[in-house]
């Protein structure tokens, strides 16, 4: 027998603004996912916390009780406050109040998934992250040095001591254009290449849990599209162009690519598109550079960026790669590993972005433009974060306002 309208109306009036979250929840689906004898008090409470989005925002005992009564009527667990305290591995006090507010822990969500057999999703909250931005560079100089300069200089950075970790971690704080303070953790790989980049990215994600992982550095550009030294290349997607199968057909050796490209989060892609063309930012950044600059203003290029464990000093090799990726914007040695490590990371997964600037065109290698390219990539990356952070994380920004 269903609830009468008056009962539901009274429930709405007493429950406040959190009702909208509950209304879109799947409590009935979670409840019916197990047999009646398996619907223990603990199972019911965890299901209620999940449906109230308690992983994202703490809830009161009253909210849990109201939701359970709405669906279970007289089958609500007795003394709900004691139940919540007993389930300490699954539930914890987030605010002492009064009233007490409870949050569903990561372990609690994992247990609910195991008990129900359902693939339950959870929107990450600010508390799930240890840092806002994790920056990775392949080289300490000139790449990470440029990041330090772009974010205020050495005086703004401090060491994060951890002798058990081979990588050196440093941190700083930057302010967004709208006034939010962001914790930034930075490190460099032990060497160039995909393997080292994958290792340092995985460690960064596990140790510091950043919301965004950004790789900053230098790359070889392709000559089409009017590129010049210092242009910024945003990898979307990143491509492991050496991944595939070598076959022989009638005495001719051929390579069949199987690159498994990894693209950007759609939100980040749409924000980057604002900077295509000739935005003012590319008039402002070079003004800070005292050395040699290219003759024309720099630009942002958004497209496939190839990665492999090889330094290319032969322009014909780039032409070969472009047979499979005709819109290729450049080649380098790390981005694919960074994207793959973030893509395969445990929850909460970070978003990721690679910004590399053109220092050569895969021929006649030299270092005369490396410092300028590192400067352009770092300056654009830091400015992009400051200007677009709130747009990048609308849900978290709204959560902060609440």
Can you walk through the features of this model?
Mean pLDDT is 85; it is low at 1-25 and 397-402. The strands form three sheets. The chain has a five-stranded mixed beta barrel, surrounded by five helices. The chain has a three-stranded antiparallel beta sheet with strand order 1-3-2. Strand 12 (300-307), helix 12 and strand 13 form a beta-alpha-beta unit. The longest helix is centred in the last third of the chain and has 23 residues, at 370-392. The chain is elongated and about 80 Å long. The chain folds into two domains: 5-116, Winged helix-like DNA-binding domain superfamily/Winged helix DNA-binding domain (Arc Repressor Mutant, subunit A); 126-401, Rossmann fold (3-Layer(aba) Sandwich). 37% of the residues lie in helices and 22% in strands. By secondary structure, the chain is α/β, with parallel strands linked by helices. The protein has 15 helices and 14 strands. It has helices at residues 5-15, 19-23, 27-31, 41-51, 61-72, 80-86, 106-116, 140-150, 194-208, 266-272, 281-284, 315-322, 335-343, 370-392, 394-401, and strands at 59-60, 91-95, 101-104, 131-137, 158-159, 170-175, 181-188, 210-221, 232-240, 244-249, 252-257, 300-307, 330-332, 351-360. The relative contact order is 0.13. Helix 8 (140-150) crosses helix 14 (370-392), helix 9 (194-208) packs parallel to helix 13 (335-343) and helix 10 crosses helix 14 (370-392).
